[in-house]
Amino acid sequence: MPVLFRRLFPGDERLTQLLPLLHQAGMRLEEDVEVMIAAYQQGRVVACGGLAGRVLKCIAIDPARRGEGLSLTLMTELITLAFERGRPELFLFTKPENRALFAAAGFYPLAEVPGYLVLMENSPDRLRRHCAQLRRHCAQLRRQRQPGQRIGAIVMNANPFTLGHRWLVEQAAARCDWLHLLVVQEDASQFRYAERYPLIAQGTHGIRNLTLHPGSAYVISRATFPGYFLKDQGVVDICHSQIDLQLFRHYLAPALGITHRFVGTEPFCPLTAAYNRRMKALLTQPDGLGRPVEVMELPRLEIGGAPVSASRVRALLAAGDWDALTALVPPTTLAFLQHAHRRETTPA
Q: Which domain of life does this protein belong to (predicted)?
């Protein structure tokens, strides 16, 4: 019987037809999916899969239809959809037992949490090429500025950039011969990457032993980490940290020659505090795959008797407390926030 593929968008009532198949596969429909492709046979859903940014997710095949080549046909439909939207670089997270299925569709493993999850991408060498580009940049820095042997790194979201972020970068730079600042690229925050990156660049201006790197898909945001087939939230958090830190230690850190990673103390967010604890365990212990990276946790800057944080700034912004907010952000961030506020409040 022929298989008919349909593209379903958020709000389409037919999305409910996919729920039994997803549930049977131990999944749920993720809110960030932009498009779902459903495969129908004799009016019945026999397969589905979705696209969220550059990630393929919610891929499920009717067990009775496995072995018929339907999975490869579905993957072809999903990859075609992504290419039409200008996204040739694709990733997926899946259970380790599905590795062979997606390998047949041209996906290659990058990192794995045994027994739980594997991250795959549709290229055998894109990550290696990315790291080679980072190495070339580092070699250029050595020729021009002699950055030395103590090389630090900070991974930053900065939603938005505050004086606390500036303080952390300054303190880390003072402890290093050279410091690399990696920005989270994914748009899962109140402020988009296209807004956050220039604020970070402006806010760190004048720190001479610093390289600010454009975001990449290899720094994974917790907010976009797919946990739809991991039922325990604690397992989701552990798997996110394992995958993200594996990529950092085994690929990004060696490419940049990183010896130290810096983080601020985390008094507010239990998830971030737990991530920092796992970071110390995963980066500092020998594992035979990458050189250990020392983790240094620095005290946060305090203003007005409390640590400066992006969440505090966002709360003040929502309350319209510009006097208190002004004390917590650099002039460039303040100007951006004021402009955005005027744009939102000015009648069209």
A: Bacteria
